[in-house]
Amino acid sequence: MIFLCALDALPEGETRGFEFDDISVFALRRNGVVYAYRNSCPHLGVELNWREDEFLDADGGLLQCATHGALFIAETGECVAGPCLGKHLQALATQVEHGAISIQL
Ligand code: FES
What we know:
The chain has strands spanning 2-6, 15-20, 23-30, 33-38, 62-64, 71-73, 79-81, 91-92, 94-97, 100-103. By secondary structure, it is mainly beta. The strands form three sheets. A four-stranded antiparallel beta sheet has the order 2-3-4-8, with no helix packed on it. The protein has a three-stranded antiparallel beta sheet with strand order 1-10-9, with no helix packed on it. The structure holds FE2/S2 (inorganic) cluster.
């Protein structure tokens, strides 16, 4: 597992992006659970966000790709609208221990 950030650095309901060499990932925290995904849209393989640390749609309920607007369920990464309907973001295993978030790349 690779250290991602302190749990306090990912407040409830927020998303945050990270770079590991050439690998882009992001994490979100919802209802106390931390989720992490590769930052790569299943449609064209581009990064989802166009603003730093912003991966949610306007009402904050779903993850959104900024390029063509695909929407994804935050907890599963499943695309529920847009050109990659039915495909999934690549989920990463996460671990929260002693106030630190780690992920498996
Ligand atoms: S690149 Fe994400 S919806 Fe097209």
